[in-house]
Amino acid sequence: MFKNKYIKFLAFLSVFIICCIGFGNAIHKKSYAASSVKLLKLLEVEDELIENLHAYVKKLKRKFNLLDKSLLNMRAEQDQMKDDYETYLGNPLNSFRLIHRLHTDWRKWHHYAIKSNMGELGNIKKAHQMRKRLPTALDLEQACRGIDDLMSFYDLRPGELAAGNLSGYSNPETALSAQDCFAMGEFCLRDRKEDRAEDWFNVTLANFNEDKLLYMVNRFSRFSVHNTWAALLVKNQKLSGASYQFEKIPKESENNQLFQWINEEILTKRNCRTIFRQPSRLHCRYNSSTTHFTRIAPLKMEELSTDPYMVIYHDVIYDSEINWLLNTTKLTLSLVDTGTMSEFRASKDSNIILSQGKVVRTLEDRVTDMTGLSMEMSDEFSLINYGLGGHYVLHTDYHNYFDQTRCVKGDRLATVLFYLGDVDSGGATIFPMINVSVTPKKGSAVFWHNLHNSGDMNIKTMHSGCPVIVGSKYVLTKWINELPQMFVTPCIRN
Q1: Taking the complete model, does pTM exceed 0.70, yes or no?
Q2: Using CA atoms, how far apart are residues 208 and 179, in angstroms rounded to an integer?
Q3: Fewer CB in 10 Å around end: N or C, the chain?
Q4: In the chain, how long is the greatest CA-to-CA distance?
């Protein structure tokens, strides 16, 4: 019995191997990139696809022309009604025609649209069936490798190939499109030829044509290029270059998977392990120019960055004020909207409103002295406590509102972050895009602008609160609204 089972197993295994070999041979035989003879079949496929698309377009044009002519008649009838409704409807024939149109004609338009769509679906179905005859991802990979091999053998540059220049043989009609260049860049990225990938991405952006409707069909945009390029630069710790690419990405695209990966794996975790400060010629000085009060009581200020503008003020909150804040404020666990514990911030916090006492009003006046900005419309103070392992993932403070929302609510122009105590280990506030980290020091406060002078969002203000290793971290934050600053910080070009 055991022998029979063994024989059956060997028979099944033999059949399986034969099928796999046959499947492998089928793939190999179908490979279009292997020889130019195979490519001839692709020309036939392309001819058939073009004819199918042409038939589809003819149906759409016929449909469009009929609708367009019908609309002209409808508009004429509508304009006649608008001239004098009472006279128009006073004629019983017009009333009858109106009722008849709305009851019968519009129903027939509905049936016509459905029927014509069925005819168009035939072309769509045929195009779908022809997908089996199209090149595979393996074919594209082999084609990309072929071009890459040519570059290596003959020392060709991406710009030359994109212009249709093959080692002295120039033919502009064979020039590569932006999408072609991007495909080569992605291939080089997968093949770990990162310098060459960057060259291809650069050529892609140079050849990008904003007017190409085909980009919309293929969901191809400048964002695709900047997104991929930024990921490559961050991976190689080229943060200044990455920040430039990030600034080119549409603001509404910031909360994507790429950003989450960068936040967790690259920027936050790696940079929290080292305390770093960007080398510069910036220095410490007494600030006596923001308000009239600072002229008689200047504040100790240390400059950290000019883009974004960022400084640290030392000894700007006193022990008595810190004790009052810590003793009178009830902290609650940071929660998301659903009421569950937040995955982005491991802390407890509480809002402190202006009416709570003299200390709050004094601190608000001091923020004005530090920043020279109006506190009108700004957020209330927020007291936050980070315990063991307490952290806040990489984020920006601005809301990035659009359209009318920003005109009404305003965005967060600047942030002031007070440190209410020292931390034994960990807990730094890091700004990876500009290589700046701030270690919590009791009584100090870091102040930075979240927006450019022009009002655009400054992606370089991305920051994170590193996990606390030993100790407890208390911070007091103040987000300053942009709208009341109209005459304080005029909007100018960067």
Answers
A1: no
A2: 8
A3: N
A4: 103
Sign of CA dihedral 467, 251, 305, 486: negative
194-206 and 222-235 helices, crossing angle to 10°: 160
Residue type, 440: P
Amino acid at 353: I
**Is the separation of the CB atoms in 384 and 475 below 8 Å?**
yes
Per-residue pLDDT band for 28 (boundaries 50, 70, 90) equals very low
61 by DSSP, 3-state: which?
helix
**Across 362-391, average pLDDT:** 89
* Residue carrying structure tokens 């058939």: 48
Query: Considering the chain, what percentage of its residues have pLDDT values greater than 70?
Result: 76
Check: CB of residue 302 under 8 Å from CB of residue 311.
yes
* Helix, strand, coil percentages for the chain (3-state, nearest 5): 55, 15, 30
Q: Is 287 helix (H, G, I), strand (E, B) or coil?
A: strand
Backbone dihedral region of 339: left (phi > 0), alpha (psi from -120 to 50 degrees) or beta?
left
Q: What is the pLDDT of residue 345?
A: 58
User: 96-100, 158-162, 303-307: lowest mean pLDDT where?
Assistant: 96-100
**Pairwise CA distance, residues 313 & 371, whole Å:** 10
Token pair for residue 73? 């008649």
Strand partners, 131: none
Assigned token pair, 263: 């936040």
**Percent of the chain at pLDDT above 90?**
22
